[in-house]
Amino acid sequence: MTVMEQQGAYRPSPPPAWQPRTDPAPLLPDAEPHRVLGTGAAADADPDLLRRLYAQVVRGRRYNTQATALTKQGRLAVYPSSTGQEASEVAAALALEERDWLFPSYRDTLAVVARGVDPVETLTLLRGDWHTGYDPHTHRVAPLSTPLATQLPHAVGLAHAARLKGDDVVALAMVGDGGTSEGDFHEALNFAAVWQAPVVFLVQNNGFAISVPLAKQTAAPSLAHKAVGYGMPGRLVDGNDAVAVHEVLSEAVRRARAGGGPTLVEAVTYRVEAHTNADDATRYREDDEVEAWRRHDPVQLLERELTARGLLDEEAIDAVRQDAEAMAADLRERMNQDPRLDPMDLFDHVYAEPTAQLREQRALLGTELAAEQDDQEGDPR
Amino acid sequence: MTTVAVKPATMAQALTRAMRDAMAADPAVHVMGEDVGTLGGVFRVTDGLAAEFGEDRCTDTPLAEAGILGAAVGMAMYGLRPVVEMQFDAFAYPAFEQLVSHVSRMRNRTRGRMPLPITVRVPYGGGIGGVEHHSDSSEAYYMATPGLHVVTPATVADAYGLLRQAIASDDPVVFLEPKRLYWSKDTWNADHPTEVEPIGRAVVRRPGTSATLITYGPSLPVCMEAAEAARAEGWDLEVVDLRSLVPFDDETVCASVRRTGRAVVVHESTGFGGPGGEIAARITERCFHHLEAPVLRVAGFDLPYPPPMLERHHLPGVDRVLDAVARLQWEAEN
Ligand SMILES: Cc1ncc(C[n+]2csc(CCOP(=O)(O)OP(=O)(O)O)c2C)c(N)n1
């Protein structure tokens, strides 16, 4: 059924010369989330890809538990865990080529790390020693964005600029289900479609925006449906199925790179932990629901597939776990060292050239710090 | 003598009670925003309102600040009194378009025919270790927009009284809640909770004779502490709590400065183009002949709000206030 055939659909009476630019039917999202794991299609999945995804998903899980532990020890100001969402995080990074760009939101630390950014540098925002710890150019990862959906128009602009320059670069922009309600989300999608910009939007629908369930966020049949109105395809995928997410994203990336324009992908997943360590999830959801999703675990789904296909034995599982353990140990050790901070850095990057006012304020802080130092040295203790 | 029930309460509790009492008193009052319903807000300031008044009166909205405030405009046009919560200071920015283009000027655009009684509650300011975009002091933007009242309580009693007045106001009020004072406790006269000065009046929190500290919101406790510490130096500082930035109480401020002859304005917001500049200019214009030293400002540095590990260097603390006071003395003697 095409959109035009849907009952009650708005049917304008256009002037005779008017032609729809595209048949909207191909834009409609999948009726059910696309799945590979646990279906016949899984047999065709590339063993190498499966192993890579598995290793990254296991690392991702470990990263989440380690970062959460560091929060409890007061080493991080806050951590928004993506436990349960590792598959889409990791698939997002692996679907990109090196020259492509990633535009993450604050929850997407796993995608950032899987892209090659140092785990400690990824966490500086959440530790609170600096807003962005990494150089965005090194791995082509924009800063983790806290104001929701505001990074999406940036992704469109970058992708558009790359195309203007003749580069076949794709931008992948990540946003949560709640973020799709923001004006910036709509403006970004519209720009991308009008410009046919090589952008892929990945909505991780994890069920909640802090306490607000999806049903209070949107009345659309799915978030992927939102694509249709802008004139881009919408895809619906099981966000806990790393292979399916990778497949759908890779397709969308290929399409964008070939000049086919943007795609909106909705990965249906679940935020198993609370919004952040500061949130009490028992106030707005039942344990049963969480348990049901725990049973649809992205790590288990992959592990089952790999084991069934004989691609994974105890030894291989062990090796992957050890690699994740080593990453976690390194993260723990380095995060347990106090970051070396120079308060004078505050003034270094406000402008390319500090204003006279900032130079004055810098001098004031310098005097204060020197006095603090004197106090400490003069302290007989 | 009558006895009054004076009991301890937090600022957050007083704000909740203000909304509850306003909703009970007037069915036109509606609370809305992100997570204000089931969760009771991320700071729990709307806790219990949805349970008591139903989801139509305390509504979890879609996550869209421009939409929230824009919808509030329409609701107010139809006779409701929306109280909207912006989750954090920096997340109110998407709503700026509505605030500046419509909320602030609807009365003026319609020659008084369509006033908008909207209260925009914004938790603001730093000092709670929040990550990027969770600690902005945006009062200067609001102050620079004619048509808005800009109010910020620093005490538990004011939190209740000013919020009730804001909700009752026929004009839009940007109600800035100093989030680091949410959990500050005060003994509070729960029997006569509304008995505070009206919006637009400043209050002398501590009388003194040497100089006036002019402040508001999160910086009030800092100034009170500085005034205590200053006694050791032989300075007797007066502390004025503005409570309302728009309208501005020239009378109370100038009366104080004329008495003391010296003034320091203290706030977290950036100094350049910040509220202190306006305040200093007003004092100079009105009290020039009474001044024994230039009006000084102690403000946050002119930076995007720093990461939490460095915020203590940015926020004006007691020492920085006392240093300014010392400079006042010096200026006065030379
Ligand atoms: C513009 C803006 N408004 C409000 C917030 C506060 N906030 C932080 S996370 C969040 C919920 C986000 O939900 P969603 O987009 O579904 O992403 P998730 O956290 O589930 O990954 C809110 C309201 C914000 N960061 N930015």
UniProtKB/TrEMBL annotation, chain A:
Q: Which InterPro entries match?
A: Alpha-ketoacid_DH_E1_comp, DH_E1, PdhA/BkdA, THDP-binding
Question: Ranges for the Dehydrogenase E1 component domain?
Answer: 64-342
Q: Tell me if DNA repair is a UniProt keyword of this record.
A: no
Q: Give the protein's cofactors.
A: thiamine diphosphate
Which UniProt keyword terms apply here? Oxidoreductase, Pyruvate, Thiamine pyrophosphate
Q: Which domain of life is it from?
A: Bacteria
Q: What is this protein called?
A: Pyruvate dehydrogenase (Acetyl-transferring) E1 component subunit alpha
Q: Which CDD domains match?
A: TPP_E1_PDC_ADC_BCADC (cd02000)
What residue spans carry the region label Disordered? 1-33
Q: Which organism is it from?
A: Streptomyces seoulensis
Q: Name one GO molecular function term.
A: oxidoreductase activity, acting on the aldehyde or oxo group of donors, disulfide as acceptor
Looking up Pfam families in the UniProt record yields:
E1_dh
* Keyword S-adenosyl-L-methionine recorded: no
Per the record, the GO terms for biological process are: branched-chain amino acid catabolic process
Checking PANTHER family in the record gives: 2-OXOISOVALERATE DEHYDROGENASE SUBUNIT ALPHA, MITOCHONDRIAL
From TrEMBL, chain B:
Residue ranges occupied by any Transketolase-like pyrimidine-binding domain in the UniProt entry: 9-184
Listed A to Z, the keywords are: Oxidoreductase
Organism this protein belongs to: Streptomyces seoulensis
The protein here is known as: 3-methyl-2-oxobutanoate dehydrogenase (2-methylpropanoyl-transferring)
Q: Does the keyword Oxidoreductase apply?
A: yes
InterPro entries of this UniProt entry? THDP-binding, Transketo_C/PFOR_II, Transketolase-like_Pyr-bd, Transketolase_C
Swiss-Prot/TrEMBL GO biological process terms: branched-chain amino acid catabolic process; response to nutrient
Query: Which top EC class is given?
Result: oxidoreductase
E.C. numbers = 1.2.4.4
UniProt GO molecular function: branched-chain 2-oxo acid dehydrogenase activity; magnesium ion binding
A Pfam family matched by this chain, by name? Transket_pyr
Q: Which cofactor does it need?
A: thiamine diphosphate
